[in-house]
UniProtKB/TrEMBL annotation:
Transmembrane in keyword set: yes
Keywords: Membrane, Transmembrane, Transmembrane helix
Source taxon at top rank: Bacteria
Native source organism of the sequence: Micromonospora marina
Name listed for the protein in its UniProt record: Uncharacterized protein
Membrane-traversing stretches: 128-144, 184-207, 219-242, 262-282
Length: 298
């Protein structure tokens, strides 16, 4: 239909507006991301949903819900609030990193899972090999991060306050317990790793159906797992000095006064570009592709 390309263009424009707002930490319009996703879904419907027809709409439900949930607050809405002093709670929170990583990845992971179910089948051997090669750096990066931080934590020390009567003494105490930190780190990297592997599996299935543009979008979602992985690790309560191997954390690209959030903006670019390629590849560019995957692996 004639309006379908216009919807895709408007979705891209809304995505750009969202990215610019993230980059400068001042949303051009609070609902830009929600509008972009809604327009992408409208484009999919107008251009012709692929079989099974429920896959794309159902997959977009968690994405839109999460976009609404994380919509920036109204200007001035966060100027006042309560602060809680948790200094008396010395318990180590093992699930803090997992919660942060899951919070950032659950919607995309759910969407990928829906598409995996919808387009399940057998992948071709060359696509499986390519996916394995692409997964290796992601898994390797997670392993290096966990190992490096775990080793550094074992050698670290922290200041301990010792109170005796009216005297307060600060002395060097033992480092953070590896038995607490390492499981917390492993938990923190699980959601991003699950997203990366699921996205690459989806790319294999889509490539096997001849949907190369959509497969490229799915592969981009595996890249999205890298900053999510560092965000999860960053939420684990650790001494700052032990984390020196982060390549995709929010400070990986030095923020400036004019551009305070470069890494979150790049993350948003990758995410929205992946969705755009997925939808365009499933509904438009590869319409002549075979409807079923190859039955015999090459």
């Amino acid at each position: 239909m004639r309006r379908a390309p216009l919807l895709l263009i408007l979705a891209a424009v809304s995505a750009v507006a969202h990215v610019v707002g993230v980059l400068v930490a001042a949303p051009l319009w609070r609902g830009a991301e929600v509008l972009s996703l809604a327009l992408l879904l409208a484009y999919a419907v107008a251009a012709g949903l692929p079989a099974p027809r429920w896959a794309v709409p159902v997959g977009f439900v968690p994405l839109i819900v999460d976009a609404v949930r994380t919509m920036p607050a109204e200007p001035g809405a966060g100027d006042f609030g309560w602060m809680m002093d948790a200094s008396g709670d010395s318990a180590f929170d093992r699930t803090a990193g997992f919660d942060a990583a899951l919070d950032g990845s659950w919607a995309t992971l759910a969407a990928v899972a829906v598409l995996l179910v919808a387009f399940r089948g057998r992948g071709r051997r060359r696509h499986l090999i390519a996916a394995a090669v692409a997964a290796a750096p992601v898994v390797g990066y997670a392993a290096v991060r966990v190992t490096d931080i775990g080793t550094a934590v074992a050698a670290s020390t922290r200041v301990v306050e010792v109170r005796t009567g009216t005297t307060l003494t600060r002395v060097g105490g033992p480092g953070y317990d590896q038995a607490d930190v390492v499981p917390a780190l492993v938990l923190a990297v699980l959601p991003p790793l699950a997203l990366a592997l699921a996205a690459l599996a989806l790319a294999v299935l889509l490539a096997g159906r001849g949907r190369r543009l959509a497969a490229t979008g799915a592969a981009l979602l595996a890249v999205l797992a890298l900053p999510l992985l560092d965000a999860g690790i960053g939420a684990v309560p650790l001494p700052y000095s032990v984390d020196s191997t982060a390549l995709f954390a929010w400070y990986a690209v030095t923020p400036t006064r004019m551009l305070p959030q470069p890494v979150p903006a790049l993350t948003a670019v990758v995410e929205l570009a992946a969705y755009l390629l997925l939808v365009a590849g499933l509904t438009g560019a590869d319409r002549a592709a075979p409807a079923v995957p190859a039955s015999v692996a090459e």
